[in-house]
Amino acid sequence: MADWARAQSPGSVEEILDRENKRRADSLASEVTRLKSLALDIDRDAEDQNWYLDGMDSEECDAFSTMAPSGRDNRKLLCVMAVGLMVAFFVLSYLLSRARK
């Protein structure tokens, strides 16, 4: 911007403006390139995480299906397990609340 004070003729002002415009265009182009690279990295990372999570979900479903196939006895077993876990949770929370006093 200090070049403005030195400009003597309209032609030199245009040269200064042209140089400044090219410098800013180059700066903008490099910033766009950097942001594009960052966006591609984020996309690749998201795809990798989705692939990993999809694999985990199917593995857990397969393990649960083999552990507890459908049937009356297995539903009874699952209900007993669920009630047992709730009872254990309440017993532990009661014991922890007593220990804090």
TrEMBL record:
<dbReference type="InterPro" id="IPR000727">
    <property type="entry name" value="T_SNARE_dom"/>
</dbReference>
<dbReference type="GO" id="GO:0005794">
    <property type="term" value="C:Golgi apparatus"/>
</dbReference>
<keyword id="KW-1133">Transmembrane helix</keyword>
<keyword id="KW-0813">Transport</keyword>
<feature type="transmembrane region" description="Helical">
    <location>
        <begin position="77"/>
        <end position="96"/>
    </location>
</feature>
<feature type="domain" description="T-SNARE coiled-coil homology">
    <location>
        <begin position="15"/>
        <end position="77"/>
    </location>
</feature>
<protein>
    <recommendedName>
        <fullName>t-SNARE coiled-coil homology domain-containing protein</fullName>
    </recommendedName>
</protein>
<keyword id="KW-0812">Transmembrane</keyword>
<keyword id="KW-0472">Membrane</keyword>
<keyword id="KW-0175">Coiled coil</keyword>
